[in-house]
Amino acid sequence: MSPPLFVVVGHVNRGKSSIVSTLAADESVEIDAMPGTTADCHRYRMRIGESVLLEFVDTPGFERPRQMFAWLSAHETSTAERSKAVATFVDLHQQSDTFARECALLKPVLEEGLILYVVDVARPPSVKEEAEMEILRWTGRPRMALLNPIGSADYVDQWRSVLDQYFNLVRMFNPQRADFAERMQLLSALREMSEITRVPLERAIEAIQSDRRENFVEGASILAEMLADILTLTRQKRIGVDVDPEPYYTPLSDRYYNRIRDLESQAQQRLKHIFGHRNLSVQQEKIPELSDDLFNLSLWNHLGLTGPQLMATGFATGAAAGGAIDLAVGGLSLGAALAAGAAFGTAASWWAGRQLPRVKLKGIPLGGQMLQIGPMSNREFPWVLLDRNLLFFSIIADHPHANRGRVAIESRSIVAQFTTTARNRLERIFSQLRRSPGVEQVDYLKSTLADILTEYLLGDGAQKKAKNV
Ligand SMILES: Nc1nc2c(ncn2[C@@H]2O[C@H](COP(=O)(O)OP(=O)(O)OP(=O)(O)O)[C@@H](O)[C@H]2O)c(=O)[nH]1
Ligand SMILES: [Mg+2]
After folding, report:
1. Mean pLDDT of 433-445
2. Which letter, b or e, does each residue of 406-424 get, where b requires 16 or more Cβ atoms within 10 Å of its Cβ?
3. Residue 326 pLDDT class (50, 70, 90 cuts)
């Protein structure tokens, strides 16, 4: 069964390529504010696994629609023969430059193509566009008009009354803003275009939805793996027997924190990859004092659990009692603690009041001493880390592929909305991970964590989407 072929047509700079990009979830489609970006027809195949589910032809649109329509009118023999007249026109003109664009876009239309005609409802219909719509009607192929509100929807009523005369279906669709659900709604509406496309489109929609579920499960396991790797992370340095460890604290802390940053950004890269957004730039909200750094104090004030939630969760799981001892930072001097905290580049006084990663200095059997930093005993930390990456996940999973600007993540807590039961389950896992368990135990905790996150992402998380700023 061949996949449905949609040919996207419309005036220059009306968002044709944007529609292909968002519907096909393909970031490789060229989009630009400059008119004439798409100079030739390009075919995009939407694949899941081995099978091609949908095909799109992105076109530059018509160049001389009025001249072409004049030719068609002059050569009309009967209404029933109109599509033949279009085919004859293409045959006769395909070698000439004058109608190169017309021929290039009409060829795939005539070979079983379904027409998606894009208009910008911020401007009124023009004479040229009427000629385009006439030609498309003459092809006799199934066609839908998409109203793209670029900037405003001032002329939507005027457009509707014109489009109703030429198209079987008319729909509003904003490719720069549409989320996953809106994309699916449009694909469902496309089923109505023709009897022959109903079945392949239904199959495509089902495959896209099941692929998405798989992506969510994989995404949850990426998040779980990242949390477990970061929470169990330690860094060590061997030094001589009587050597003063003080100068080694800062470089060791730097290595430790940089590794955490790397693990987070690798996980985010993998999430981008899953959802086909390899080149998308995502940043923390555009508030100047909120830098992207994970160890930024103001970020911590916006994310994670609230103070009372953290305390309640700690008591419920017994983590608070153990945590209090860590205030002394593994028995090391406050100086060492501050050196470890200074690596964040934030106010040392703030960090001094919080539990830091453990810093240990111990003798080793073959002589010398081992300086170790980690695992992170700060109880807020996993919540901030999880929160920020759940926000990242929800942005990435719903971002339309046509929107190439920088995406901002709002700093609003997701984890603070979790049920008490979910918070306690997670806290128990976090506190077990902090105690450096063995490999098997870590694997078990990772998979439990992945299950909890999958449950959230496929349930509540899918409903409560993070909004794009
Ligand atoms: N605000 C807004 N901008 C849009 C929308 N759709 C497209 N644009 C912008 O309009 C410009 C043109 O979009 P394209 O998708 O490249 O349009 P096109 O019809 O393929 O353009 P050509 O290939 O040049 O004919 C880009 O700068 C898009 O970001 C929309 O729905 N809203
Ligand atoms: Mg284009």
Report:
1. 94
2. ebbbebebbbeebeeeebb
3. very low
Q: Look at ligand 1, atom 2, and give the residue with the nearest C-alpha.
A: 150
Residue 33 CA to ligand 2 centre (angstroms): 9
User: How far is the CA of 445 from the CAs of 39, 174, 266, 289, 362, in angstroms?
Assistant: 53, 42, 20, 35, 28
CA of 391 to the centre of ligand 2 (A): 31
φ, ψ of residue 34 in degrees (nearest 5):
-75, 125
Is the pLDDT assigned to residue 57 strictly greater than 90? yes
Confidence of residue 10 (pLDDT cuts 50, 70, 90): very high
CB 35 less than 6 A from any atom of ligand 1: yes
Q: Which atom of ligand 1 is nearest to the CA of 30?
A: 16
- Please report the atom of ligand 1 found closest to the CA of residue 177: 31
Contact 164, 170 (CB under 8 A): yes
Residue nearest atom 30 of ligand 1, based on CA coordinates:
150
Ligand (nearest to CA of 33): 1
Cβ neighbours for 229, distance < 8 A, ≥ 6 positions apart: 263
What share of residues in the chain are helix, strand, coil (percent, to 5)? 55, 15, 35
Q: How far is the CA of 25 from the centre of ligand 2 (A)?
A: 15
The pair of three-digit structure tokens given for residue 90, joined into one six-digit string: 């293409």
Distance of CA 148 from the midpoint of ligand 1 (Å) = 9
Check pocket membership of 33 for ligand 1, CB cut-off 6 A: yes
Chain region(s) in the chain for CATH 3.40.50.300: 5-193
150 lines ligand 1 (CB under 6 A): yes
CATH node for 5-193:
3.40.50.300
Looking at every residue in the chain, the average pLDDT score rounds to 87
295-312 mean pLDDT: 79
Does 169 score more than 80 pLDDT?
yes
Sign of CA dihedral 270, 273, 274, 277: positive
% of the chain residues with pLDDT over 70: 88
What's the rounded Cα separation, in Å, for the pair 344 and 431? 23
pTM of the model: 0.89
Q: Point out the ligand nearest to the CA of residue 153.
A: 1
